[in-house]
Design brief:
- The chain is mainly beta.
- About 5% of the residues lie in helices and about 50% in strands.
- The strands form four sheets. Strands 2-3-4-11-6-9-12 form a seven-stranded antiparallel beta sheet, with no helix packed on it. Strands 1-19-16-21-14-13 form a six-stranded antiparallel beta sheet, with no helix packed on it. A four-stranded antiparallel beta sheet has the order 5-10-7-8, with no helix packed on it.
- Strand 2 (about 30-35) and strand 3 (about 40) form a beta hairpin.
- It is globular and about 50 Å long.
Length: about 260
């Protein structure tokens, strides 16, 4: 009996995969600010003290909702890169040069901001709130970013059951300069693998925009976030009929590496 149990243990221990280190951000426990015009779920916020330095150069990841014909302003206090991703409805962004951009679902807007710059986001819809994602990262002087709008469409085959790159800047060999944004639509029980640049100084932030998914054995509901590190690839699977997943991969100094 002892020998048999030992063999069974040996078989099952060989099947157990060591889980990749990470941090999950369930929507239920995220920092939330709400008013009649504006609601924001902040994943990396530390409340009144600002944002956490634990996952730099990723500074902010906000899921925001803006009431019809309302605007929200923000100011950056150091050089940053702004990413805006509308989820539904028309959105207008006005940058520090007073130039306005009209954005809609399927658009990824990127702009580099200088210390003291102010931006304004406006919901152009007359009746419905607009939902969008606002991401802020540190900038890198070696790889400046020009203002741009990149487009994606999760309803076409190119984005099905895989993560497709929408934006990339920097170089993996230069810590903190590399940033990559990918989007994909997974269908029920379909498997996909996201491959990182390397497992040494890369982190990967996954966010479920729609549906439910499993990432490296972790269950993620709509609006749940997950940061993983010390891995070269991430296994993804849709647990609902469809799941739309956003991935932000970014480099960080090895001195800040989490174990």
């Amino acid at each position: 009996t002892i020998s048999l149990n030992a063999n069974i243990y040996s078989v099952f221990s060989g099947m157990i995969k060591e889980q990749v280190p990470g941090q999950i951000f369930p929507v239920e426990i995220r920092h939330r600010v709400e008013s009649s015009a504006f609601t924001v779920y902040s994943i990396l916020s530390t409340g009144e003290s600002g944002v956490s330095s634990e996952h730099l150069p990723l500074c902010q990841f906000n899921d925001e909702m803006l009431a019809p014909q309302n605007s929200v302003h923000f100011k950056v206090h150091a050089a940053k890169i702004l990413f805006l991703i509308p989820i539904n409805g028309p959105l207008q962004y006005t940058g520090p040069n007073k130039h306005s951009y009209s954005l809609g679902p399927g658009a990824l807007f990127i702009q580099e901001l200088a210390d003291g710059d102010v931006g304004e986001i406006t919901n152009l819809h007359t009746k419905e709130p607009v939902n969008y994602i606002r991401i802020v990262t540190e900038s890198d002087a070696v790889f400046p970013v020009s203002s741009q709008i990149n487009f994606y469409n999760t309803d076409i085959a190119h984005y099905r059951n895989k993560m497709t790159e929408v934006f990339q800047i920097g170089h993996p060999a230069i810590a903190s300069s590399f940033k990559k944004v990918s989007v994909g639509k997974l269908f029920s029980r379909a498997n996909a693998t996201y491959t990182l640049q390397n497992s040494v100084n890369m982190k990967c932030f996954l966010y479920v925009i729609e549906g439910e998914a499993e990432a490296d054995g972790r269950l993620l509901h709509t609006r749940d976030g997950l940061i993983l590190w010390n891995t070269s690839s991430i296994a993804l699977e849709a647990l609902s009929h469809t799941a739309v997943v956003l991935v932000v991969e970014y480099g960080y100094p090895i001195s800040k590496r989490l174990i």
